[in-house]
Amino acid sequence: MNFTWSYSALKDYVNCPKQYHEVKVLKRFSKLPTEQMLYGTEVHKALEDYVRDDVPLAKNYERFQPVLDILLEIPGERYPEYEMGLDRNKKACAFDDENRWVRGIVDLLIVDNDRAFIIDYKTGSNKYPDPKQLKLMALMTFEHFPEVKYIKAGLLFVMHNSFMHEEYAREQMPQIWSAFTGDLQRLQLSYTNDVWMANPTPLCGWCPVRSCEYHKDR
After folding, report:
1. Over the stretch 70-99, which tens digit does the pLDDT of each residue have?
2. Is 178 helix (H, G, I), strand (E, B) or coil?
3. Could you give the CA distance from residue 56 to residue 37 in angstroms, rounded to a whole number?
4. Residue 214 placed within a domain
5. I need a labelling partner for 204 at 20 to 30 A (CA). Which of 49, 56, 194, 210 fits?
6. pTM
7. Is 93 helix (H, G, I), strand (E, B) or coil?
8. Which of 163, 168, 166 is nearest to 143 (CA)?
9. pLDDT band, very low/low/confident/very high, at 119 (cuts 50, 70, 90)
10. Burial (CB count <10 Å: 0-12, 13-18, 19+), residue 29
């Protein structure tokens, strides 16, 4: 069975296949946004508006302005909240293309001739940074911008004023894709065999799948 995915969807599957199945496939339950998620959405919108349209930051977000101003000094064409998709041949397609295989949104993409910069804003903890999202966005950027040969990408933890960065070259694309191979193979097997095992963790108290044997109230 063919499926579509995104970084967040694949991460949900890895965290718990059963929750993924109930929420993403059967749609019997839905995730309610937490206070942290709502705050993150609000911050992302404020940063996007400042970078795209020079909208002044609200007073409680003004502390983010110095680092945003540094980003605005990077030369090149800016693409805030840029939507991209890839088809099953891993070729560029529209974000909402009905034949898409994977899609994603870059918080800030800057393209300067054969070089590009990818920034992903994070409002959570910087303790366990996950670069896989950057890798996927880089792969999409290489396909959508054939002139780009090198990419600098980073997770910007705005609450901690810290930055985790990686660099990629176009010739590394097969190696970068290998970071997703195992998880995608497991996901394909779950669809093929219709097997979705629960993965009990301390996060079960936040899970919306109340029918799961491991569900517990917080």
Report:
1. 999 999 999 999 999 999 999 999 999 999
2. helix
3. 22
4. no
5. 194
6. 0.93
7. strand
8. 168
9. very high
10. middle
